[in-house]
Task: structure prediction
Amino acid sequence: MRQLFTDPIAATQEIPEAVNVELKNLTTHLFKNSSTLTGITQACGETVKDHYNRYSAIHPPGNGNVCGICATEQLAQRRSGVAANDQWRAPYDHLLAKEKYPQFGIDPDNLLPICNTCNSKAKLAKDLLHNLAGQRRICFDPWTENFQGQVNLQIDFQDISPIVTWVMSPQPLTNQSKLTTWDEVYRVKERVEGEFLSLEVKLAEDLDCRDLAAFKHSIAAKAHARKQFERRTPFNYWRHLLYESLLRLADTDLEQLRILCHAALDPNGHAATTYGI
Result:
């Protein structure tokens, strides 16, 4: 199945509609009812909970408790005093929608833990293999590939307030198509740019705005810290990219941004809000 992600020529087997309906019923039943059967656990060597805990482990090869698709949300909230196998877990997404590709409905390679927003709001039943015009496309194999180093954030000073722009820099160029598919299906660009719409407020939460020297020092420190903990906290990956882009700005632009951030603080030096807990 995974060849379908990366090979634009690979085609799924055509299944007659009558068979497709029955196959969908069968795989839906198996997906809902077979995961806890003793025989299934013995054959797989682990339960679904075991697999999820291994996938979401903080240390590599675990991906941490941050969604590996978007890095903007927790997979699931962790609770104190609760055993690992009793913790809540994220939904398992059918990468190839079970409605359209029931033959892969219980294929382990087709099942990936992702956050609720990716699963229930962004992707829904979108087709990874075909765009809205029905044209064949390729995408990342989430088990072996990632977008590290192929997306950057940059600051645009052309507006009244600086805005954050999400920029793709695919290497090799074939990854342009994969990045486009990833964004079209999971709506990552608009979610990341939306997080930083009030850029000065977001930066004021993190940075020392007293003067330019303190501002630059805190940017460098936060860039390192966010990078270290990108698997632990949502948006750390994107914050790291944002701070790296700030470090490339000229001092005149940084000073303009620092003044805006300082103005976003309340008289006590905290990021201003209009409501609170």
The chain has two domains: 3-123, 151-263. The chain has eleven helices and four strands.
